[in-house]
């Protein structure tokens, strides 16, 4: 059964106008995502936008927003060998989500020249 559905839309120009992409990255990204981010050259803003949109979509599907025990860096969006995005949670976030009976999560990302969108579905 579906527990929740969430979506988020990001204007890439809003990300590009940030004072410091690196500061934003350190605030919202988890360890694995930061490793990926450091390899990006001129795609850092797009990467950050996609990651943030996916995290927002996830907490919207959860129905909580960002609050204890789930903050942006507790949710990592990792690409598998085929490039499909997968959600990886910190131990505290994973425990919280499992206590809600959520057993599976899905996320889809798409982008155009000026916009990034993420869609998340959580299953029980």
UniProtKB/TrEMBL annotation:
<protein>
    <recommendedName>
        <fullName>Holo-[acyl-carrier-protein] synthase</fullName>
        <ecNumber>2.7.8.7</ecNumber>
    </recommendedName>
</protein>
<dbReference type="InterPro" id="IPR002582">
    <property type="entry name" value="ACPS"/>
</dbReference>
<keyword id="KW-0444">Lipid biosynthesis</keyword>
<dbReference type="Pfam" id="PF01648">
    <property type="entry name" value="ACPS"/>
</dbReference>
<feature type="binding site">
    <location>
        <position position="56"/>
    </location>
    <ligand>
        <name>Mg(2+)</name>
    </ligand>
</feature>
<keyword id="KW-0963">Cytoplasm</keyword>
<keyword id="KW-0276">Fatty acid metabolism</keyword>
<dbReference type="InterPro" id="IPR004568">
    <property type="entry name" value="Ppantetheine-prot_Trfase_dom"/>
</dbReference>
<comment type="function">
    <text>Transfers the 4'-phosphopantetheine moiety from coenzyme A to a Ser of acyl-carrier-protein.</text>
</comment>
<comment type="similarity">
    <text>Belongs to the P-Pant transferase superfamily. AcpS family.</text>
</comment>
<keyword id="KW-0460">Magnesium</keyword>
<dbReference type="GO" id="GO:0000287">
    <property type="term" value="F:magnesium ion binding"/>
</dbReference>
<keyword id="KW-0443">Lipid metabolism</keyword>
<keyword id="KW-0275">Fatty acid biosynthesis</keyword>
<feature type="domain" description="4'-phosphopantetheinyl transferase">
    <location>
        <begin position="4"/>
        <end position="95"/>
    </location>
</feature>
<dbReference type="GO" id="GO:0006633">
    <property type="term" value="P:fatty acid biosynthetic process"/>
</dbReference>
<dbReference type="GO" id="GO:0005737">
    <property type="term" value="C:cytoplasm"/>
</dbReference>
<dbReference type="InterPro" id="IPR037143">
    <property type="entry name" value="4-PPantetheinyl_Trfase_dom_sf"/>
</dbReference>
<keyword id="KW-0808">Transferase</keyword>
<feature type="binding site">
    <location>
        <position position="8"/>
    </location>
    <ligand>
        <name>Mg(2+)</name>
    </ligand>
</feature>
<dbReference type="InterPro" id="IPR008278">
    <property type="entry name" value="4-PPantetheinyl_Trfase_dom"/>
</dbReference>
<dbReference type="GO" id="GO:0008897">
    <property type="term" value="F:holo-[acyl-carrier-protein] synthase activity"/>
</dbReference>
<keyword id="KW-0479">Metal-binding</keyword>
